[in-house]
Amino acid sequence: MAFYNLDGRVIAITGSTGGLGSAVCQALLDKGAKLALFDMDGAAVEAQATALGANTRAWQVNVCSMESIDTAMEEAAAHFGGIDVVIANAGITAFEPLVTGDPKVFERVIDVNLLGVWRTFRAAVGHVQKRQGYLMAISSLAAFSHSPLQASYTSSKAGVWAMCNSIRLELRHTGVGVGSVHPTFFHTPLMDQTFKSAAGSKIWKGNNSGLFKMVALEDVVKSIVKGIENRSDMMFVPKENSFVAHLPRLFRKILEAVEFKDSEVAAMVEAAKPAPAK
Fold first, then answer.
1. What is the domain count for the chain?
2. What is the value of pTM for the model shown?
3. What is the pLDDT of residues 37-58, one digit of tens each?
4. Residue 2: inside a domain
5. Which alpha helices (H) appear in the chain, and where do they start and end?
């Protein structure tokens, strides 16, 4: 695939004010891109656009609403004269065991992380097809490595991977590329939330070593930018984790034997139980 120059490209990104979103936006601006900033937090995204300057514009967007994302995408295309690239980046997480977890929390994670990506792509596809552009979704290594108490998160990220594979086949003949990004853990406010959770801290133990050692946010951002420039199908951060996608059954056995022993999982489940009512 020929190099896809980002200079002058119009890129729409959801979850633009988050830890990853903010860093990606700055990197894309540095490449000369124009940015349509979509975020649930209206005040934050307006402030972001003001800080980033003239080649950006902000929209308050709820990826759980087809009407909201449709309207924003139409307005962004009208404002910039079209859309070349869309990054479905909005995402949340939760630690909820099957037995005691809140069904609404599970549904919320799926709604944002999986259905939100579909809605974003659906709203964007007509515009992106006109420019034979590129659709990117931020998935996770969790698409292939499935931790306990995170059925909602791992299901959503595996679903995003499968969705991208399917949609890529649908759109390939139109000249549109589709890619999924699969980073391991990196420092963002979302990860801070994970480690503040009693269950999350037990499951991941700080991620300072082992299979899920933290990587630098800058490495994830570089991979995303390079992935767009190469119109890649899949991106892994770090690259050596790509074996997880090709050997999922073997990795599953290693994961269960090394990281998630029965006694440890029992403690994780206990930590995730709701506190007794006072």
1. 1
2. 0.85
3. 999 999 999 999 999 999 999 9
4. no
5. 19-30, 42-52, 66-80, 103-110, 116-130, 151-171, 189-196, 198-204, 217-230, 243-246, 248-258, 262-272
